Amino acid sequence: MKEQSSRPPLAVFDLDGTLADTAHRQRFLERSPRDWDAFFAAAAQDPPLAEGVALVLSSARECEVVYLTGRPERCRRDTVAWLAAQGLPEGRIWMRRNDDRRPARRTKLEILRRLARDREIRVLVDDDELVCEDAERAGFTVVRARWADASPALRDAQEGEGRT
């Protein structure tokens, strides 16, 4: 237990819609069928969301920053490069397995609970209302990232298709 108290708390940040502005790639989800390869390939060009970036930087003063995204593992290289290009703190990146299609609210809560076993989680910052609701019900402190325009197509994909 002493080891746990000597480690800084975690600040957990979502990426899409929280730190990364996905508006320019929403068009790939508005098609039928949705073009997931193009959607994720375009993530490398996401502009940063100033409010989210500012919150990560301020959180990093007292917390260890980790990133919890619904992006599939195959996007790791682009995601690491994007975070570095934005000047964001290095931190562990939790991504979904390429074949995991469970809703984000399930996958993210599962990882939060795993992290909370031996670390204090100071805050979760996410734009997905369902993720935020479930995290709050589980006792986590949540900041809802409401600084980007919500996309109905992305919201459907997060919950119904387990893709982000």
Poorly predicted runs of 5 or more residues: none
Roughly what is the average pLDDT, rounded to an integer? 89
Proportion of residues in extended strands? 15-25%
Rough outline: globular
Helix content: 25-40%
The helix tally amounts to: 7
Distance between the termini: 35 Å
Structural class: alpha/beta
Using only C-alpha atoms, the radius of gyration works out to 15 Å
Major sheet size, sense and barrel closure: 5 strands, parallel
Order of strands, widest sheet: 3-2-1-4-5
Question: What is the H/E string?
Answer: HEHHEHEHEHEH
The total count of strands amounts to 5
Question: How are the SSEs ordered, and which strands pair?
Answer:
Layout: H1 2-6, E1 10-13, H2 36-41, H3 50-59, E2 64-72, H4 76-85, E3 93-96, H5 104-116, E4 121-126, H6 129-137, E5 142-144, H7 152-161
Parallel strand pairs: 1-2, 1-4, 2-3, 4-5
